[in-house]
Write a structure and sequence with these properties.
The chain has nine helices and ten strands. The strands form two sheets. It has a five-stranded mixed beta sheet with strand order 3-2-1-4-5. A five-stranded mixed beta sheet has the order 6-7-8-9-10. β6 and β7 form a beta hairpin. The protein starts with a helix and ends with a strand.
Length: 322
């Protein structure tokens, strides 16, 4: 950071905001907010100027050093309904809704004032100048990329894990072959020209169409990301055991069992996380930890999805094997 900015920044708590996903064809738009002292973490920069490996390595360090981190998500369906400008402002509001630490200023990367706040201002190229905005840039990019990679397991035909929803030749070819998915922004070109075109069923890796259980797991992964988790793996399995979602928040890894019930006539989803099931979960977690050399904190968790349309009805963040 230039000396003049360092001098201006010293002793001030700046909350930085940056967005990712504005120009994508599919998936959410994400705004992240972060507050970090300028000399707390070396190697920060605009996420676009960092390698994927460097961004992912920075995330836990940012979470450790930052005084505040918030992430706001707005889905493709909402973008289609209210437009991008309003969606960006909504995502920004969601990013700072839990802001409780004292701060001196909010700096938003770019020229569009996403927040109606007396302490908020815009600054072009802030993601290369202000550490808090750099940190927000990294948090937003990694969170959204992880989310799109998780969805690639349910919609493998589109290659979301590679282009994360942006327009590429491969993405265009997939749209022509398979039509518009529920993750696409139908108000954007070229999807707007395909509205009314019945999309071909997308086959999962098993060779069958995505099931209700798979859709519930996708919803669960999206919900966890909005709560600040980073999804590490989906449907991890090895001989004799399986884990629906492996996610990390702060310094702990959570092994999440997802249970979906359309109705409660035969019991709630969490009713099926029995002591025997918990022991299976613990065994699977031990296998994963051993195979990955992981020795840090971990938790067993269960997430219940219910109804139609689906929604998260309960999350138990820490359960114990019976």
């Amino acid at each position: 950071m230039p000396a003049r900015l360092t001098e201006w920044y010293t002793g001030r708590m700046i909350i930085g905001l940056d967005e990712v996903g504005r120009g994508a064809w599919a998936g959410p738009v994400v705004v992240a907010a972060a507050g970090i002292e300028p000399d707390r973490l070396a190697g920060l920069n605009d996420s676009k100027l960092l390698t994927k490996r460097r961004r992912e390595a920075l995330v836990p360090l940012i979470r450790q050093e930052a005084a505040f981190i918030g992430i706001g998500w707005v889905s493709a369906r909402t973008i289609d309904a209210i437009g991008m400008s309003a969606s960006l402002k909504l995502a920004a509001e969601r990013a700072v809704e839990g802001l409780s630490v004292p701060f001196d200023e909010i700096i938003i990367d770019g020229t569009i004032k996403l927040l109606d706040h007396p302490l908020a201002s815009t600054l072009p190229k802030a993601d290369t100048l202000i550490p808090s905005v750099m940190a927000a840039s990294v948090i937003a990019k990694v969170a959204r990329d992880d989310y799109m990679a998780a969805l690639a397991g349910i919609f493998p035909a589109y290659g979301f894990e590679k282009h994360v929803g942006y327009g590429t030749a491969a993405h265009t070819a997939a749209l022509r072959a398979h039509g518009v998915s529920a993750l696409h922004r139908q108000s954007f070109a070229p999807m707007s020209g395909m509205v009314g075109w019945t999309a071909k069923p997308v086959k999962a890796h098993t060779g069958i169409a995505p099931t209700a259980g798979q859709a519930a797991e996708t919803l669960a992964a999206e919900w966890l990301v909005r709560q600040g988790y980073a999804v590490i793996e989906r449907n991890w399995r090895t001989r004799g055991c399986e884990i629906d979602i492996i996610a990390q928040k702060d310094s702990a890894v959570s092994f999440v069992e997802v249970k979906y019930r359309r109705s409660t006539a035969s019991g709630r989803g969490l009713d099926y996380v029995t002591p025997a099931k918990q022991r299976q979960m613990n065994y699977a977690a031990e296998v994963w930890r051993h195979s990955h050399g992981y020795t840090g904190d971990y938790r067993l968790a269960a997430l219940e999805v219910g109804g139609l349309p689906m929604q998260v009805t309960e999350f138990v963040s820490d359960i114990h094997a019976g």
